[in-house]
Amino acid sequence: MPATKRTRHLLNSTFRVALLSVGCFFVLLPVIWMALTSLKSADEVFKTPPVWLFSPQWGNYAEVMRLVPFQRFILNTATIVGLTVLGTLLSCSFAAYGFARLRAPGKKFWFTLLMATLMLPSTVTLVPTYIMFNKLGWLNTFAPLVVPAFFGSAFFIFLFRQFYLSIPREVEEAARIDGASYLRIWWSMFVPLSFPVIATVTVFTFVGAYNDFFGPVIYLTDESKQTIAVALSYFSGSPRIGPQMHLMMAATTIAALPSIVVFLLAQRYFVRGIVLSGVNK
After folding, report:
1. For residues 219 and 139, is the Cβ–Cβ distance under 8 A?
2. Which pLDDT tens digit goes with each residue over 266-276?
């Protein structure tokens, strides 16, 4: 009987692994196709039926670097993404601490109003925001893409607040007895304890800022200040380069690597932060 159970368990495990492997293959198929297309020649990309066995054209990646100032785009993107992540973490965690721990008249009303802004599409505020940045003289600078992050985001404030509610009040009360101020408690106690939610917000913010195409196109006019997301469009039909599918796939492969690496590094904390941020009211 035990042997029969072990055999049944082995068959069930094998079936689940096989099923998950097939599902994983279909999920990763677009990524595999992208990587393979990036190594094809221009003629092999559009052949029917598709070419699966070919001589890899590793020079496509060097050609991408030659046709566009990709190093400059990477530096611009890193600057924008780094400042956006920093501003989002500081502003959202600080505001969330106030909503979670401090007492103030009308706090629930203001938090409800903050959550209501999630229903407001960003396109509704696009024109007045553009006019405001134009009046400030911020067009063709990184400021419109970076400065708003230092004023918080409703969704991320919600995540931080939910996580802070799970921290025992005894920890905060002990710090208050020792004479710590609210600012010191937030910075020295709550921020170090909230690493899972910090990882979650970092991943969301990184992917959002890294893949942002609309913002750089609207606010940046100089090519030397553009980002990677805009650079990818150069290979889909710009007058200077023309449609180059194999080169666009090579550029897309390069552009996708940072997001994949960031998610893999923060995956464990990312999932934990999502779970812990939703268990409190």
Report:
1. yes
2. 777 766 666 65
Residue 70: its pLDDT value, please?
A: 81
207-212: long-range contacts at Cβ-Cβ below 8 A with a sequence spacing of 24 or more? 207/259, 207/262, 207/263, 209/80, 209/81, 209/84, 209/85, 209/145, 209/149, 210/77, 210/81, 210/258, 210/259, 211/259, 212/145
| DSSP state string for the chain | -HHHHHHHHHHHHHHHHHHHHHHHHHHHHHHHHHHHHTTS-HHHHT-SSPP-S----THHHHHHHHHS-HHHHHHHHHHHHHHHHHHHHHHHHHHHHHHHH---TTHHHHHHHHHHGGGS-GGGGHHHHHHHHHHHT-TTSSHHHHGGGGG--HHHHHHHHHHHHTS-HHHHHHHHHTT--HHHHIIIIIHHHTHHHHHHHHHHHHHHHHT--HHHHHH--SGGG--HHHHGGGGBT-TTT-B-HHHHHHHHHHHHHHHHHHHHHHHHHHHHHHHHTTS--
Angle between helices 245-276 and 2-37 (to 10 degrees): 140
Range scoring the smallest mean pLDDT among 1-5, 34-38, 136-140: 1-5
- Return the residue matching tokens 């109003």: 113
Query: Cα angle vertex 82, ends 72, 191, to 5°?
Result: 170
Kindly report the pTM of this predicted structure. 0.84
Q: How many CA atoms lie within 13 A of 248 on its CB side?
A: 16
Residue of 90, 75, 85, 93 lying closest to 206 (CA atoms) = 85
Question: How many residues does this entry show for the chain?
Answer: 281
Q: Kindly report the backbone phi and psi dihedral angles of residue 200, in degrees, each rounded to the nearest multiple of 5, phi listed first.
A: -65, -50
**What angle do the packed helices 154-165 and 107-116 form, to 10 degrees?**
140
